[in-house]
Amino acid sequence: MGKPQYHTDIVKSFVNWSLVWGVVAVLVGVIVSFQMINPDLNYPPYFTFGRLRPIHTNAGIYGWGVGTIFAMFIYMVQRLCKTPLWSLGLARFQLWLFNATIIAAAVTLLLGYNTTLEYHEMEWPIDLMIVVLWVVFSINIIMTIIKRKEEQMYISLWYMMAALIGVAILFTVNALAVPVSAFKSYSIFAGTNSANVQWWFGHNAVAMALTAPPLAMFYYFLPKSTGVPIYSHRLSIIAFWSLIFMYLWTGAHHLLWTPIPDWIQTLAMAFSIMLIAPSWGSVINGYMSMKGQWHQMRDNYLVKFLILGITFYGLQTLQGPMQAIRTFSAFIHYTDWVPGHIHMGTMGWVSLVSVAGIYFLLPRIYGREVYSIPLANLHFWLVVIGQLIWSTSMWISGILQAGMWNAMNADGSLTYTFTETMVEMYPYWWIRAIGGVIYLIGILVFIYNVYMTVQKGKEPAPKLLEVEGRA
Q1: Fold type of domain 9-467
Q2: Closest CA to 20 of 447, 459, 328
Q3: 396: buried, middle or exposed (CB in 10 Å: 19+, 13-18, 0-12)?
Q4: Cβ(358)–Cβ(15) under 8 Å?
């Protein structure tokens, strides 16, 4: 029987562009971290913290994160279904629209067009582009699954479909607005309803864009990298359905101690705590898959990225539910602890797994072995150290910040002014900026390694290309 001929050129393109936007995201993040230390680095009206910060988050989530999702989903779905991508033409249109959307979002945010909704700052014309982009992508992936030649649906396909459907619903509902001009609209929701819908979207965007897709990648690339099957497919399915059911109820834990109805807050808090179980189901599945294979943490650079990635996911899903408890939320909410928490997920969990996937893909889409494994190991240590410095400095400063905000004198007056509190943050903001620079250097090492692989990497053994079904 002839092996299926998979489409790889489109995967190359998405990998390349996701790397471009990834560098932009980290670079802008480093810039805004220094702007917080030195306000003179703000250059109004365009290059100020207020305009660059949403570019940083959106380039990271949608440029790097979603760009990588596009590449990995297109790569994985063909192999898991043992059939070529349903429509190469749609995928090429998707690539063009993806870059056009990212550029349009960056330009409009620089110009100050902003809905003020976290993770959904783009105005309505950009929203329409995103909807078309996601519909095209979803149709292509779902049709490939429908046309599959492999009867069994591996766990990665379940997470992929959840992401496609979940993002579509969340984004569409939160985008409902009334346009009043070419680049201005007002949400159809108001007051507490607006806040509730926004964080139903915001937290579940993390679920469907920054949790389900990386888990799909992890479950695919860990067995491929180690040569050992996943420990339990049954456990992965149980964890999947539990995660999908529980996650959708947790968004209001961002709104504890607000005018949101108390029962909604309590519901979100309860489901957030329960969410530990399905999250750690995947963590345990990953660890148990390494039974008898832990030596690969030393010998296989891909495994280091994957296992540290799932470890950061596990820590993230312990820290998050802890923050969803009212008493703890009252202490740390609005402090530097919160960005420390989210960046452990983005810089640690999502990025490490995505990078492992790209390293795995390189020989299979370019026909060349990775240029330098020592450089890949250097990249690993730089980004892990940079991320730990970044997040740890924010956790410490967040606790200090919360303590100073809550300190009271005997007469009930506040011990510290807001300015005094801010002054104490400067040493930690310096540490954060340094951690960001280290992380950025790691990314540049990664980009160099990818570039040299394409240009000078050694050709892999013919057997590898045969397994991939390439001509």
Answers
A1: Cytochrome C Oxidase; Chain A (1.20.210)
A2: 447
A3: middle
A4: yes
